[in-house]
Input
Amino acid sequence: MIFAAIQFIQPGRNKSEQVLPVNISKLYAMPQNVETIFQKACNDCHSNNTNYPWYVTIQPMGWLMAKHIKDGKAVINFSEFGYYSKRRQISKLQDIANTIKDGKMPLPFYTWMHADARLTANEKALITSWLIKTKDSLDNKN
Amino acid sequence: MVVTAILFAACTNGGNTTENKIAASASDSAISQTQITAPQPLKAASVNDIVSAYLNLKNALAADNANDAAAGGNAIVSAVSGIDTTSFTATQSRIYNDAIDDIKEHGEHIGANAKDIAHQREHFDMLSKDMYDLAKGFTGSQTLYKDYCPMYNDGKGAIWLSETKEIKNPYLGKKMPTCGSMKEEIK
Output
């Protein structure tokens, strides 16, 4: 009965097709293969545009997702990366590279349901080297 | 009755997002107001307190003590929250404002990772660059040394600040305590 009732409470969606100039892919030259990794493994929780799975309509899955997206965007939002100061961009690029290298991101909870977000060693190397290269180029502009 | 209420909430949910947002931001500002009026320490914190907390953190990492390092990270966050910026010069304000959000965020991460010293050190690396910039802008009260570890970061190297001339490497800890060299004296 409660399960049936909670199905009516659908959280708002994190969906915006508009790609702003402050989007990380617009700010820094990003090869297609790196962008693909961002899209499949990062952007669901760290951008303004989530690619929702079918079970978002089942509660409490949808609520859980809304919470993860809210928390994820609070830490880093790739759609609005340009709003961070240069110093914080440098820090965040390094931190993201570290967490991917250490296997902390994407979260196991997420990859459990999203098989394509499990990064291969190759994909990890690809995205971390792009992150560090971009970070170094910002560092050198000092 | 409850079901009716839920149904009503569900039906109105779609059109109400703006109002929800306004309500949410109103409660956000309520929270920040409570923080402002929360009891302050008797003496406002200064940049020296941030530096002291950083040095404690540095010494904890050099001793491979992740718990003390976490306490140092948290001490940085509370020093930042209680800081009195009124006596800053314009240049100091610019340096401070540029670095402080980053410093606080690294402090939070280090404080939250008492079980992961490797991750604490990753943040300490980035934090040390911010602290160096900050120290350069607020000289005078304490001589600091900028030290350099050539091995950290897969050989890319990393800096840290120390209150002593003696090298105690916070990146490699007890494994290689004296690895590194002093690069600059900040007075």
In short: The beta strands of chain B are 144-149, 158-162, 181-186. The longest strand of chain B covers residues 144-149.
